[in-house]
Amino acid sequence: MPRVLDAVTGAPVRQLGIVAPSGSLPDPALVDRTAAFFAARGWRVSCGESVFAREQRFAGPDALRAADLQTFATDPAVDVVMSARGGYGLVRLLDTLDFAAIRARKPIVVGYSDFTAFHLAYLAHGGVSFAGPSAGDFASADPDPFTVEQFFAVLSQSSHGLAFDADGPRRASAAGRLWGGNLAVLAGLVGTRWMPRVNGGILFLEDVNESAYRVERMLYQLFHAGVLQRQQMLLLGSFDPVPAMPNDAGYGLETVIAHFRARLDIPVVCGLPFGHGARKATLPIGGRAVVELRKGVARMEFSRYPTLSR
Question: Is 178 helix (H, G, I), strand (E, B) or coil?
């Protein structure tokens, strides 16, 4: 399809494709609000059939969800493919997706939470995608300004910087491949062909509604598999809320973090603005990152990822 140009400015009209490869949407009007947000910025928006479908907890049958994702990710007319929401279900699709065809197209694909399964499987095939907002993050009356700014800035520039208040060593630095996502989804791929082997990387993790002992157990799965030890740095985003258990007796997420700081020979840095809250960065999974931590402030630089100007 030929590129559509704006009649006034002559600039390309960007196309957003929304897919729902995991859970069904509780409120389909969410997509209308997201479409209005992007339309106000001169974008066109198209949706896969899965966005409005439902089969049990899923956004339609597995075959429909996989076909939508494959079609949008390989369509040269679609500038950005975005997940409508998370939930559960993408892991069902991994062995039906043609990652070689997707990589040949080099699309911009964005999502988080359950979409981590795609990010990691695609990285295992040599692709770069983005942990970032889903369609729902743009559907409120007042989307988070940081989330909006980061999304458009990262996708518009071949490199991008990010600074945030951080808890970790007084001084630390790392440079390598950035990767990670949702802890539960990532841990569930350990030992499978969909888990990329990243050596000397910068691993970031987030989760939601997981009690502290469950977070520790999943981190130990990564530890005993040797995943954590192969990294240069561990970045932790948001884990809120962390439900307390009746027998915790003072044990909590802070306990878990302190425990792994003692066990690992790499910096463990908290405060990455990413997770299930409204405020989230857009992070290139598979891109290069440089992190410098000085006196409670972390500065990150990203590069080597696809952009809208490709």
Answer: strand
pLDDT digits (tens, 9 = 90+) for 175-184: 999 999 999 9
Q: How confident is the model at residue 236 (pLDDT cuts 50, 70, 90)?
A: very high
Find the Cα–Cα–Cα–Cα dihedral 148, 149, 152, 153, rounded to 10°.
Answer: -160
Strand partners, 283: 131
Which candidate, 40, 37, 59, places its Cα nearest to that of 50?
A: 59
- Cα 113–Cα 210–Cα 183 angle in degrees, nearest 5: 45
Q: What is the pLDDT of residue 13?
A: 87
DSSP 14: P
Catalytic residues: 113, 206, 276
At residue 11's C-alpha, the angle toward residues 16 and 159, to 5°, is 70
pTM exceeding the 0.85 threshold for the entire prediction:
yes
Locate the DSSP E strands across 2-50. 15-19, 44-47
Q: What domains does the chain contain, in order, with CATH numbers?
A: 15-143 (3.40.50.10740), 160-303 (3.50.30.60)
* pLDDT (mean) for 265-274: 99
126: left (phi over 0), alpha (psi -120 to 50) or beta: left
Answer with the residue of higher pLDDT: 28 or 299: 299
Nearest to 123 by CA among 107, 143, 103: 103
